């Protein structure tokens, strides 16, 4: 088992005809992901990477039932792409695009309420269930099937951490990014719930960042609801206050979102926080060596 | 993007939010004329984007035209909190009875706008929130409902705004919200909203930040200035933050770049910057980055830390090689570089880097090894 996606997941790539969409959908197909169709307005009838393209998601779904979409469309059109997927009751949307206006995401956040759609991102690296299905930018070769669930706010940093976990001999159930933007569709808590229920996941690794209060909320939830072992690492220990560190969500203001506050919250919840990639991999491996 | 006070006030004025009579000046002569035109009794306000302007000496009260000239010349000649002042706003002095705070920010936890009102304006809102949290009335705005008048009335009454002012302030608050919404605001603030002795509300100061991601659809927003190194880097899609150490960092991905800083910090080193090349790592990102880093005289060693997920190490290494050899050719390759490449096509990438024709570049297999080297080199030089 795994969470959200597996070898049977059928994916539609929104914005498949752009350079970005073509490049990454090709890599997804090479990994073994079932990309069943693509959508780009006014490009209906085209074929990209052997995949048929439709003008609208509705049409694509008529011929190719699917559970998930990945949105490669440019930032100004992401709101529409998300709306189209939410309206079609798609189960998982990988919102990998950067630069979505916050006002658009405020509207999407409200639209998601009461639906069953899980939206990763925007500004998420995507999601991978190793050796089964990849929707996003993750470098497939660093992941291996196994018992560790990884949830992250970062992209590249999560690949490095996953790589370190694989190197200590542990594979992963599912790895995903919730997104680096100030407002995201899913939170750490939504994903922690899924990992807690998933039989394959035996331990959870959470990769946080300074800014927002997603980590503090997660810590509180872990304390009351998560029985599986959780370890964490938080990027931005040395970041100054008041500066946006690349991700629009990664900013400490008025002491809010600080590294210290997050470490304190995790410690209170009994979650050890590692300082380096190597250390976090060791912490996960200790979880398994105890048994 | 942060707007200057004078720019924000132009938007206020278009929406009939009252602002003080004022003249924007770029020279001491302008200020002298403005003093006379406004009939004396003025305030000079340095136009800068940093907080605490008054305390830092950026606001002056000239008594005579000659003083307006002299003071403006001083304001324009020295940096305020490290920032060069290019413009001074000369405004008519207000006869203050009350100072009120009205603002909207995007509440990212609830994913909707948040209205904040206080009868105790004039101090920074963060400070007020710390000292007297109950003095601020907060109301979340449901994006679908919008901001009906009764909600504003409720907020104003709860905040203790005197009844005779409420209808006037509802209009101003509603206009402020429209501006925030239509212009893709991140934050919009009148602090203080002065109530004069005649009972007239006037926006004495203004803050307005617009979402960078939405600038493409905001043609009336001012063009971003390319003054700071951060802004110039952003113009070429590099995410840069200046810090005060000696170790220059070039990395890809915001999280990884922060983690790289943290690692250096743990080894006892000090990062000179945050620099995330993002997607440009496959293009001329490293070359541009090296140029930005060379502007900082404190940088005495550079750490290139790459983890290639989508991109390929061999392509990235080729780009690094090109950039370094070009600098070498211009005899500008004076700062040692430690590179750590990991991810896709790592072996090929490392091989390419080992062929770089420069003694200044060395490689490390792991981030631990790389950070040790970097901190050591930085301490010695």
Question: Outline of this structure?
Answer:
The complex is a heterodimer of chains A (291) and B (381). By secondary structure, chain A is an alpha/beta fold.
Number of strands of chain B: 16
Q: What is the fold-level CATH name, i.e. the topology of the largest domain in chain B?
A: Rossmann fold
Strand arrangement, major sheet of chain A: 3-4-2-1-5-6-7
Kindly report the average pLDDT value of chain B. 93
- How much helix is in the residues of chain B? 25-40%
Assembly form of the protein: heterodimer
What do we call the CATH homologous superfamily of the largest domain in chain B? Succinyl-CoA synthetase domains
Label the overall shape of chain B.
Answer: elongated
Largest sheet descriptor of chain B: 6 strands, antiparallel
Range of strand content of chain A: 15-25%
CATH topology of the largest domain in chain A: Rossmann fold
What is the mean pLDDT of chain A?
A: 95
Strand content of chain B: 15-25%
Counting helices, strands and paired strands, the structural category of chain A is alpha/beta
Description:
The complex is a heterodimer of chains A (291) and B (381). Chain A is an alpha/beta fold. Chain A folds into 2 domains: 1-123, Rossmann fold (3-Layer(aba) Sandwich); 139-291, Succinyl-CoA synthetase domains (Rossmann fold). Chain A has helices spanning 19-31, 57-63, 75-87, 102-112, 156-167, 188-197, 214-225, 259-268, 277-289, and strands at residues 10-14, 34-39, 47-48, 51-54, 68-71, 92-94, 118-120, 126-129, 133-136, 145-152, 172-177, 203-209, 230-235, 273-274. In chain A, α3 (75-87) packs parallel to α4 and α7 packs parallel to α8. The two termini of chain A are 21 Å apart. Chain B is α+β, with helices and mostly antiparallel strands. Chain B folds into 3 domains: 21-92, Dna Ligase, domain 1 (2-Layer Sandwich); 96-217, 2-Layer Sandwich (D-amino Acid Aminotransferase, Chain A, domain 1), CATH 3.30.470.20; 229-380, Rossmann fold, CATH 3.40.50. In chain B, strands 5, 6, 7, 8, 9 and 10 form a 6-stranded antiparallel β-sheet that branches. Chain B has a 4-stranded antiparallel β-sheet with strand order 1-4-2-3, with helices on one face. Chain B has a 4-stranded parallel β-sheet with strand order 12-14-15-16, with helices on both faces. In chain B, a hairpin with a 4-residue loop joins β8 and β9 (201-203). The radius of gyration of chain B is 26 Å and the shape is elongated. Classes of the chains: A alpha/beta (291), B alpha+beta (381). At the A-B interface, α1, α4 and α5 of A face α4 and α8 of B.
